[in-house]
């Protein structure tokens, strides 16, 4: 089957599934510790088992495992064996599997085909993504692909591309991110807007205009349990001379932040104060202009690494 026909079949399958989409969405996180044995099994799959997509799916879909464990095995094999194709040549599943590298479309199509062979229903979703290269205030483009998968009659969302790693200076860096595995729709929507609105898997769907204005929350925001408590939060903060933003945060969580120029140069650190469960960030600006507030969050014990939590465009007038 040629690449164009393969893509057409996958997209046709997506729209057929959409017409029969059960409104129930998976809306919970799973403790990674639950998958320790599954992860080790998938990540250490012998090359002989991965000779073909069919043999790999058979290896990863152990008969004693339920749908959740099978999906996890597929996820962990792909995120540990497939590199992102920074040259953007491999857009389709066969080439992605053969070369062990692919684009977002390659990741998504490969997952669909492996899932199908493993007895799992999965679809490729295309749409808009505010990824690591996005800056608040940017216009978004319809140029990304990810997946939805049905587990025990519920639909879940995942993104293998960002779950696998990042591209820096044109080079792929493997940097596993648990955040993108079966991400609750209420968190997923801050980074992804599907072309077909139903795949938001939200009771109240949002528009493209509203999506562009949502705060630019990153994995560290959700991992640390932060919640912005300002009214009508947006990825753009308008101010005159000074700004302040507030978050509720669980005990033991700390924030660090920096004010940057449009070019990415760090200017100064804003003031961060904590009163009970509320952390406030404030900054004064000497000159009018556009700035960026970038923050990281993590445990204050020093035992865990802080993760990128948010970015805002600050328009000082």
Description of the molecule:
By secondary structure, the protein is an alpha+beta fold. It folds into two domains: 3-214, C8orf32 fold (Roll), CATH 3.10.620; 220-316, Sandwich (Immunoglobulin-like), CATH 2.60.40.1220. Helices cover 28% and strands 31% of the residues. The chain is built from ten helices and 18 strands. The strands form five sheets. Strands 9, 11, 13, 14, 17 and 18 form a six-stranded mixed sheet that branches. Helix 3 crosses helix 6, helix 4 packs antiparallel against helix 6 (104-117) and helix 5 (93-99) crosses helix 6 (104-117). The longest helix is centred in the N-terminal third of the chain and has 17 residues, at 3-19. Mean pLDDT is 91; it is low at 1-21.
Our measurement of the CA-to-CA distance between the termini, rounded to an integer number of angstroms, reads 58 Å
By secondary-structure content and strand pairing, the structural class works out as alpha+beta
Overall domain count = 2
Give the DSSP E fraction (strand runs of 2 or more residues).
Answer: 25-35%
Give a brief rundown of this model.
With 317 residues, the protein is an alpha+beta fold. Helices cover 28% and strands 31% of the residues.
Primary descriptors:
317 residues, alpha+beta, C8orf32 fold, Immunoglobulin-like, 2 domains, six-stranded mixed β-sheet, four-stranded antiparallel β-sheet, 28% helix
């Amino acid at each position: 089957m040629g690449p164009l026909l393969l893509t057409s079949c996958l997209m046709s399958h997506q729209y057929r599934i959409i017409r029969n989409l059960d409104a129930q969405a998976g809306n919970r996180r799973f403790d990674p510790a639950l998958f320790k044995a599954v992860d080790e099994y998938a990540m250490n799959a012998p090359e002989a088992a991965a000779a073909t997509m069919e043999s790999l799916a058979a290896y990863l879909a152990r008969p004693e495992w339920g749908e959740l464990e099978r999906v996890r095995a597929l996820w962990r094999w792909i995120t540990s064996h497939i590199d992102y194709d920074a040259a953007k040549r491999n857009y389709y599943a066969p080439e992605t599997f053969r070369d062990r590298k692919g684009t977002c479309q390659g990741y998504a199509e490969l997952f669909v085909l492996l899932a199908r062979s493993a007895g799992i229903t999965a679809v490729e979703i295309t749409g808009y993504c505010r990824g690591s290269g996005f800056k608040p205030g940017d216009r978004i483009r319809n140029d990304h692909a990810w997946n939805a998968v049905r587990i025990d009659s519920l639909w879940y969302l995942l993104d293998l591309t960002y779950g696998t790693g990042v591209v820096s200076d044109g080079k792929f860096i493997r940097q596993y991110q648990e955040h993108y595995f079966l991400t609750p729709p209420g968190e997923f929507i801050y980074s992804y807007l599907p072309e077909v609105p139903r795949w938001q898997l939200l009771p109240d769907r949002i528009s493209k205009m509203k999506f562009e204005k949502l705060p630019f929350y990153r994995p560290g925001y959700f991992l640390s349990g932060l919640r912005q408590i300002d009214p009508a939060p947006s990825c753009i903060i308008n101010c005159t001379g000074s700004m302040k933003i507030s978050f509720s945060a669980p005990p033991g969580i700390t924030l660090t932040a920096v004010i940057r120029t449009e070019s990415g140069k760090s200017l100064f650190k804003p003031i961060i104060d904590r009163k009970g469960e509320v952390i406030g960030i404030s900054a004064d600006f000497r000159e009018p202009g556009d700035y960026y507030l970038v923050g990281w969050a993590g445990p204050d014990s020093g035992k865990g690494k802080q993760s990128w939590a948010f970015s805002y465009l600050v328009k000082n007038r």
